[in-house]
């Protein structure tokens, strides 16, 4: 079977597709081009609403939907093709947009969004696909018949840092390493031993993911917290270590280095002892291209600027489904 179906009158009215009732459309609502069909196709009565793919030519033949045939499933594959595909249904009665599914493939960076219902204003008539430039995801919306483009900025970790959580990119390396050799190992990668760049709780959550989810051998890796001159505990960036960063009963003030437990909490550790793995932390790199769009609605004019999302993994980029939907809802449809 193919994804091509004959559009019903109800679907045409709800989706606003230009082909109208009886036209053949793909799952994303776009019309099936004439050259997708075998010669003389489609040729069945209007009661025949499905189409199969010829195994020899790859061309379409219309056929009864009740016919039993093989199932072939398709999803976006990673490749250098600058593709953006999004299937959208607009329900005018409930004033919602259903996205099913969405995938972006942009120079080896990949995004999916599936099965999300978004609120919209009464003015929006259709969302269309826009080929993104560089590492952006762009969506086009029609407000009062006028197309407007909204672009989302993508944040990418280096391929040497295939693990991520929140705003942190991580590399797990083999040891053994003392504290100083672990620090030098990370510095050679333009990284550092782990420390909170902003919110301590978010960093501790990231540490929990790093230690418990990614590598079972990553037991008590070195942290970026050390005691300086026998006085104060400081992070790699010079900030003072918060008291809530420590595990219960820590620090014992007997050692000058520290390791991170599975809850993301610090424990003192002798600097000269070795740990079997090293965890290096890097900041994400941000693509600096920005896009600003102004969307006019009946109520007000809304200016929309590039939105930063936090995502990464080796060579691939995944948007957080909930976070991405919130951005769409807050920035596009409110």
Account of the 3D structure:
This protein is mainly beta. The protein folds into three domains: 5-63, no CATH class; 83-157 and 285-333, no CATH class; 163-283, Mannose-Binding Protein A, subunit A (Mannose-Binding Protein A, Chain A), CATH 3.10.100.10. It has four helices and 22 strands. Strands 9, 10, 11, 19 and 22 form a five-stranded mixed β-sheet that branches. 27% of the residues are buried.
Number of strands: 22
What helical percentage do the residues reach? 10-25%
Shape designation = rod-shaped
Strand content: 25-35%
* Rg for CA atoms: 26 Å
The structural domain count equals: 3
- Distance separating the two termini: 39 Å
Category from helices, strands and their pairing: mainly beta
Order of helices and strands: EHEEEEEEEEEEEEHHEEEEEEEEEH
How would the blueprint of this fold be written?
Layout: E1 5-6, H1 9-15, E2 24-25, E3 50-53, E4 60-63, E5 83-91, E6 96-106, E7 109-113, E8 116-119, E9 124-129, E10 136-143, E11 146-156, E12 163-165, E13 168-177, H2 179-187, H3 200-214, E14 226-228, E15 232-234, E16 257-260, E17 266-269, E18 275-283, E19 285-286, E20 293-296, E21 301-304, E22 307-309, H4 321-333
